[in-house]
ABC transporter ATP-binding protein (Cytobacillus depressus), 229 residues
Amino acid sequence: MKVVEIQNLCFGYSRAGTPIIDDFSFTLNTGEIVGVLGQSGSGKSTLLRLISGLEMPTNGTISIAGKEVVGKRKFVQPEDRGVGMVFQDYALFPHMNVKENISFGLSRMPRKDRKPRVQEMLELVHMEDFGDRYPHELSGGQQQRVALARALAPKPNILLMDEPFSNLDADLKESIREELLSILKKANMTCMIVTHDRKDVEAICDNSITMCPLIAEQGAAGQKFQTLP
Ligand SMILES: Nc1ncnc2c1ncn2[C@@H]1O[C@H](COP(=O)(O)OP(=O)(O)OP(=O)(O)O)[C@@H](O)[C@H]1O
């Protein structure tokens, strides 16, 4: 089943300037993990911001889980799109402990179901013994796992990760990659991962997109979709 369907997406930060995304179309199926590669400034984060609803395109449509979220005269707010996000700096709430951070996005879930869901997420990311700790009491890798648990807790249709490994040292990165892949596959999660590192894509992703910067004078270079061997 198609989880994300993007058609003819166009976007620029200023109407007069060069577009960042130009006539971009793309489909993502259930359980698929796609890497988003491309040089700095090519529009990787912008693509995630458009899917999550933090930016509005100038043209094109986006559907998530069969429901149009962006189209002509249609714009569904970010909180109603069923999109989970993990950022480079994890963005955990420093005044909340691990359990409270994970339960933050569960306000729409019946109260009685929240505690078991938090426990389930703690087990999924192997953080059962850290529920009462605060973010500053955790390592980088542990913080990342909490951020992942928080994003997965509300059962999003898709998970968007923006440079999730960039704050981790090389040794940790290797083990976290394997762990992330196992967590995502266990949850049958559909996922897009922005990264600079081709090794991340080789280790985790089924497919990849390479974003090319659009240079007005040379015509639109466009975005390339590529299936990994
Ligand atoms: N809020 C903004 N206002 C104006 N221009 C912006 C804004 N955010 C990003 N840009 C520009 O849009 C282009 C794409 O930025 P984006 O952050 O999507 O690139 P990226 O591929 O994720 O880069 P990086 O790998 O460096 O994170 C860049 O040229 C950037 O300068």
Notes: The chain has a mean pLDDT of 87. The helical segments are 44-52, 98-103, 111-124, 140-152, 170-186, 198-204. The longest helix spans residues 170-186. The two ends are 22 Å apart (CA to CA).
